[in-house]
């Protein structure tokens, strides 16, 4: 096809506190060498760092880049604002800390045509630079961590899927289902794909499409991310009960088991009741699982492997605790 035959593409990026990664993320979009028209819409939230200044500088240097405000600072608001400002009928979602691999946009456009899907996407290729970040990246791709989802694994086969990482959308499909739900501060992509599938449209996963994802760089940031993710996953299930499955229920069940087992074991130790002391089997069993899982995960630097048991435990426990607490508890506190 000539360049005139390729549809125009709008890359929409929700951006907040991304001074560390924004330039690289935008650079990877511009390096795509997509044969059709391409623009980048940066939806900038009220950041605490130099993100806004960096975005303005990038936009000043390239006419293909535009900046739109996102005063709410939330991801779904940014996405809807970016889509509303976009000029083209194909919307590519990219995060401010994500980097597209070579040929991503071109292949995604081809897959939209080949499959007739409303949204195509691929693998969340987590990669860290520090030992801690490398351990978090490993947890994302390990079945002991978060690797149960199709889009976390490069070995997953192509085909229809419940959801994909980020996504390349037909604009008409987004508009037909009302866009991103702005009450879903997290998990809005999963919830949107659920509505797209409910409208009779297809979501297509392809391992050919890969986006480099930069994981959280501190234990505190990881714990907060997983806690919030657990809360919002419960909210998705509250709104759409048919989406509950064992993979999402495993972390809260594990947290309950650890809490009950540890409490029973402690009471047994204090009272001398042997049966109650068996409760310690729960935390000991979990510790064994995390340890074995860390040792049998694929090749990685020794310092990163040393972090992995802690990363896995924080991921499981914070995700599960967030799910158990849920958003309703937060609302009651706020009221």
* Number of E-state strands: 9
Return residue spans where pLDDT drops below 50 for at least 5 consecutive residues: none
CATH topology assignment of the largest domain: Spore Coat Polysaccharide Biosynthesis Protein SpsA, Chain A
Report the oligomer. Answer: single chain
Radius of gyration: 21 Å
Strand content: 15-25%
Overall mean confidence score, pLDDT = 90
- CATH homologous superfamily assignment of the largest domain: Spore Coat Polysaccharide Biosynthesis Protein SpsA, Chain A
The count of helical stretches stands at: 12
**CATH architecture classification of the largest domain:** Alpha-Beta Complex
Overall number of structural domains: 2
Helix- and strand-based class?
Answer: alpha/beta
Shape: elongated
Helical content class = 40-55%
Protein described:
51% of the residues lie in helices and 16% in strands. By secondary structure, it is of the alpha/beta class. The chain has 2 domains: 3-216, Spore Coat Polysaccharide Biosynthesis Protein SpsA, Chain A, CATH 3.90.550.10; 239-334, no CATH class. Strands 1, 2, 3, 4, 5, 6, 7, 8 and 9 form a 9-stranded mixed sheet that branches. Helix 9 packs across helix 11 (281-296). The chain starts with 8 loop residues before the first strand and ends with a helix. The mean pLDDT is 90.
